[in-house]
């Protein structure tokens, strides 16, 4: 697949951004008192954010990989 180099770089940077930002956000979610109930079980707040972060990381990897593949 051919793509202008500038767009390929944008894809790589977008993928890298997702891989850098979302794990840091997870640290904040895990430390948030709303993420566990009184018994120490995960709340819906934590579960929803875990799913959102996981999807964002998968998309970040896919977009970054697409950017790398279009640079080759």
Short description:
With 72 residues, the protein is mostly helical. 76% of the residues lie in helices and 0% in strands. The model has no long low-confidence stretch (mean pLDDT 95).
Report on this model:
Helix 1 (5-31) packs antiparallel against helix 2 (44-71). With 72 residues, this protein is mainly alpha-helical. It is 76% helix and 0% strand. The relative contact order is 0.25.
Secondary structure elements and their pairing?
Blueprint (H helix, E strand, L loop, with lengths): L4 H27 L12 H28 L1
Helix pairs in contact: 1-2
Using only C-alpha atoms, the radius of gyration works out to 16 Å
As residue ranges, the low-confidence spans are none
Helical residues, percent = over 70%
Strand content: under 5%
Distance between the terminal alpha carbons, to the nearest Å? 9 Å
Query: What does the overall shape look like?
Result: rod-shaped
* Total number of helices: 2
Instruction: Give, in order, the helices and strands.
Output: HH
Mean pLDDT: 95
Number of strands: 0
Q: What structural class results from the helix and strand content?
A: mainly alpha
The biggest beta sheet is recorded as: none
List keywords for this structure.
rod-shaped; 0% strand; mainly alpha; 72 residues; single chain
């Amino acid at each position: 697949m051919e793509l202008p180099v500038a767009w390929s770089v944008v894809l790589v940077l977008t993928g890298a951004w997702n891989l850098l930002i979302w794990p840091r956000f997870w640290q904040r979610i895990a430390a948030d008192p709303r993420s566990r109930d009184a018994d120490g079980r995960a709340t819906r707040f934590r579960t929803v954010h875990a799913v959102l972060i996981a999807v964002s990381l998968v998309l970040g990897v896919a977009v970054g990989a697409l950017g790398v593949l279009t640079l080759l």
